[in-house]
């Protein structure tokens, strides 16, 4: 018999109400022990909760969800009690005195929902993203995936591959017979080719998915004293980083998270780039370069208007930002894209506006499907290589069919649904009646 698990499912206490959730075969017995008779299924019912000696723990709403019609698919119950630490501690302590009842591990309710077929892996991951979402774009991206849109796409691809494989297997088995025309396999391979193109397009949107899910990454880099930390503070609207007239102030990366039009944007302030004998500062410079090399957007900050080459390699978007325009200077703005003063504030809005539109452009529509997790992208890439194998005309048909199977399995791993019965169904449903 599976353990019955219990945990606080609502947020930090103290809070108005705390929701304690229980799932597993002893849920009903535990609920009866706490409140007497079980309430009607799925009806919020006000009850007194008592310990085994009959002392009142609290008074709260109780919900009973007999399985399989519950979040986890098991018998579940919820206790909506007052959100005090001692209330919840006492309730949990009384619950785990019961045989077969223990505290839940992180993610264990969702894990059970997955095991019982209530959620697939993509949906379960999306629920976790939904809980972590801080901005509107993150929320919409997570909701889309949590409601199965992405899963459906992968399921359809997988279905096509299972069909393709069944056709090729049939061709292998009945190649001497006349009822399987050769053109069938041409159609199959044409469809596999177009699937490769669809997967490529989907993988190409992974930058978008990453930006929507994890946020858009901006790095402030440049010479010491250029005004990077001051600019970070202005963008963040608070004194995040230490500012001083001494060059080499910043060593660690200091981040500020902004919500621009619903998109999460992380601004990273970094150590000023220079040759240095200081070990700590040199490490800071190394980290600054590393961060800049991975950023979606690099703001190259300079107080002089001179911008030496950052040598960050290809593919980085770099904007040149001249700072301290409030100070009178001989030279002009040079070839800066933006000129601003963090002290007077002039030019700051232009920069923020430009970041805003850059993020919007690079994130695209929030409601179009894009893979946002490394796990998905990796499996998509692996699946694609199997498909390329399957298209190789130099290989015997048996191996090409096997490559289709591996590709289908790989796609099945994204949603966690790889199951042999389905494959058998796809194969046998295409046999002629009586064969
Ligand atoms: N109080 C409470 N609020 C909550 C949750 C919860 O567990 N408890 N949720 C937790 O994540 C979310 C809602 N998700 C849920 C998903 C499925 C079922 C459920 O009972 N499913 C059954 C019956 C479906 C039906 O009747 O329509 C099923 O799938 O068979 C409940 C909540 C957000 N709000
Ligand atoms: N007048 C004026 N001074 C500024 C401006 N921005 C920064 N400063 C000053 O320039 C000095 C250096 O600023 P920081 O923001 O610490 O420079 P940084 O680029 O972070 O420097 P490191 O961390 O050493 O790389 C400080 O004295 C700031 O007050 C500005 O827009 N106008
Ligand atoms: Mg600094």
UniProtKB/TrEMBL annotation:
The keyword Glycoprotein does not apply. GO terms for cellular component: cytoplasm. GO terms for molecular function: GTP binding; GTPase activity; metal ion binding. Its EC number is 3.6.-.-. Mg(2+) binds at residues 229, 250. It is found in: Cytoplasm. Residues 215-360 form the TrmE-type G domain. (6S)-5-formyl-5,6,7,8-tetrahydrofolate binds at residues 21, 78, 118, 435. Its cofactor is K(+). Keywords: Cytoplasm, GTP-binding, Hydrolase, Magnesium, Metal-binding, Nucleotide-binding, Potassium, tRNA processing. It is an enzyme of class 3 (hydrolase). Binds 1 potassium ion per subunit. The keyword Repressor does not apply. It comes from the Bacteria. PROSITE patterns: G_TRME. GTP binds at residues 225-230, 244-250, 269-272. GO terms for biological process: tRNA methylation; tRNA wobble uridine modification. Its main location: cytoplasm. Belongs to the TRAFAC class TrmE-Era-EngA-EngB-Septin-like GTPase superfamily. TrmE GTPase family. HAMAP family: GTPase_MnmE (MF_00379). Exhibits a very high intrinsic GTPase hydrolysis rate. Involved in the addition of a carboxymethylaminomethyl (cmnm) group at the wobble position (U34) of certain tRNAs, forming tRNA-cmnm(5)s(2)U34. Homodimer. Heterotetramer of two MnmE and two MnmG subunits. This is tRNA modification GTPase MnmE.
